[in-house]
Structure formats: C-alpha cells, structure tokens
Amino acid sequence: MPRFARAGLFAFLAGVALSACERSATPKAPSLGAPAPAFTAMTLEGEPVALASLSGSVVVLNVWATWCIPCREEIPQLEALHREYGAQGLKTIGVSIDAAGMGADVRDFATEQGMTYPIWLDPDHQFSLKFLTVGVPETFVIDRAGVIRFRMIGAFRRGDTTLAAAVRRAMAS
After folding, report:
1. pLDDT tens digit sequence for 113-140
2. 161, 172, 144: which is closest to 81 by C-alpha?
3. Which controlled-vocabulary keywords does the entry list (predicted)?
4. For residue 158, what is the DSSP state?
5. Across-strand partners of 120?
6. Residue-wise DSSP of 34-74
7. Is residue 57 over pLDDT 80?
8. Does the predicted model carry a pTM greater than 0.90?
C-alpha cells in the first residue's frame, strides 16, 4: 500500500475513533418525559437534601441567583403557585446557584422578596451540570413519578400562564 494511502487510512480511522469518543462523552440534557436526574444540595440551614426526598410529589424546581434581575421578576409568580397548590402537595423549590458562603445573603434575599418556599443552595452548580441548564432562571416541573414534564429556559413574563398550566397538568395526573 502506498505511503500516502496508509497515512490517509490512518487519519480516517483516527478521526472515526475520536468522533466516537466525543459523541459518547457529550452529556445530553434530560428531555421532557425522561426521569429527573438525581440531585443533592444543602438547605439554608446547612442540611443535605435530595430531590429523591420529594418522590411522590409534583415539584417545581426554579434555578436562580440573587444577582439575576429576571429571577427577581418571576418570584411573585412562583410564590403564588406555592401558595395556591402547596396545600395540595406541590413542592416549590428555589435552587440558588450563588457562590459558596453566601447562605446568609441568600436567606436575607429570600426574606426580602417574600419567598416562603424552600431554598436549596447549589454553589457547585451540580444541578446545572446534571440538568444541563442554560442559565438562570430556568424552571422545571417534575411529576409524582419523578419525570420531567415541563422546562422553561429564561424568565416568565408577567401574566404568563404556561407554568401554572404545567403545574395543573402534573397535579391532575
């Protein structure tokens, strides 16, 4: 086999091998209808908490940060859902991605904003890594079986009813 043919064959096979490795190493975001990834965080009190502990409940997970202006704007809508459906079993969780050591600041912010739903701290961005979030805010609705039923990338606009509709569908199933 001529030298150039061998070099070409080698380059082709190396390219195929590398592309196969790259495809298998590229994580995929969990899709609608797929089980929610396992995830643990810390409560504002410093206790570990796992998403699995909410199994059997409909869960709204909202990823946010204190410095995020759109996150602030959607807090009233999340709070309204928490108040309306909390007694029926809805678990609304705010997942803060603020830096480590900011728990007190996050607690103060939540109090100032009137957030009465639980806040979980995720300074290492494990939630973002497992759910492959794009940024903040980002919101997920997970049904009682632990399946992702809704995902919203970005903030909800005032008067937007898509999250409430997703919660109602999940609560009815």
Report:
1. 999 999 999 999 999 999 999 999 999 9
2. 161
3. Cytochrome c-type biogenesis, Disulfide bond, Redox-active center, Signal
4. T
5. 43, 95
6. SBPPP-EEEETTS-EEEGGGGTTS-EEEEEE-TT-HHHHHH
7. yes
8. no
